[in-house]
């Protein structure tokens, strides 16, 4: 086997009955690529970004907590794109180092208008002067750091004075659940990192995370806008940043911004989650291009004792319709329910999608699933594609990857292999991190392989389906 190719699973079970939803046999070996390359050491692809010509840009993590990560460009067939100008010595990949900053959790990434990539990830530094925060990284189209952005291509954002991350509160809440000792499992890693960033027209960058408000003693979501060089854009709320204030919360409630999307008229739609004295929920709000809250956009809230969380957002280009996806705990400890919300451009629930109500889905029999990623299809954006992982917050022996397609009425699109497909191998467990649609109308998703429910991810995969 050529060293520029990954390896492929010996056996797999894919739920498919018709052409739409079939694995694309022209990609890798029958549509699935194992993320194992002898040229570099990497664990799993966290984000796969389709390029206009059908090639794929992949961001992958390294083992444990390291000061670097790997980016690779793949051909349309799933091989390293060697000899075409990407990576050191045109090897088709590059290892990006962030010096003494140790990276952790899930990477986020989005394409830039110049063909480069914007990457976000959390970091920490060594004691005794250790700090935590996130970094925003800009890469050029050939995989090199953009030295005109930040410091050598990296902009650092320390969290400052020890905020109270809501992830910790959610984990603690789940740990308090009555789980039998012999059923202890790892927690799925599909949750978003603490930061998310996108490019805006003119090369500016919008990003969100969370910080600590000393005056109110609360953790609050933060929305920032940067100039193309990584400096704060002072035309956004006069200081380059704004906090998320939720009328729904009491004086002790905390919230964290998790994701952002560009919207009509230069606005930004921000989603996140909150904890208000033990009540957990998830929200979506909108900021104007000037950095103030858009009061004409409804403050959308989903809350329950099942710990609902939004994990991704998609905006339909032609009319500003907003899709938000995520999940919540199911009836039992180990099952889950997907959460899908579709809003009109003004923030009100879209009346045609599930009669204006959030759609709680359990398409995987018995154990259900949580959604991790979403996108509208090409070219008319008439369907919503969602991807996620079976079960709930905890890893189980039945965990596998799921991808579904919905009509914008909230009904499953049965022409897509009956409504959904799975990646489900016999020898490993699969979790999903990201889904995208290529310009050639193919669905690409990626994720992690787990050896068993007690372990951590040890490798990864990319699958491509016919849309």
Main beta sheet:
4 strands, antiparallel
Tell me the number of strands. Answer: 28
Bulk shape: globular
Strand content: 35-45%
- Overall pLDDT: 89
Structural class: mainly beta
List low-pLDDT spans. 10-18, 161-185, 187-193
Q: What is Rg?
A: 21 Å
- Give the strand order of the largest sheet, numbering strands 1, 2, ... along the chain: 1-28-27-26
Number of helices in the DSSP assignment: 1
- End-to-end Cα distance, whole Å, is 29 Å
Report the order of strands and helices: EEEEEEEEEHEEEEEEEEEEEEEEEEEEE
The helix content is under 10%
Number of domain modules? 3
Could you explain the architecture of this structure?
This protein has 467 residues and is an all-beta fold. The protein has 3 domains: 1-34 and 312-467, no CATH class; 41-158; 189-305, no CATH class. The protein is built from 1 helix and 28 strands. Strands 1-28-27-26 form a 4-stranded antiparallel beta sheet, with no helix packed on it. Strands 2-3-4-5 form a 4-stranded antiparallel beta sheet, with no helix packed on it. It is globular and about 55 Å long. It starts with 31 loop residues before the first strand and ends with a strand. Residues 10-18, 161-185 and 187-193 have low confidence and may be disordered.
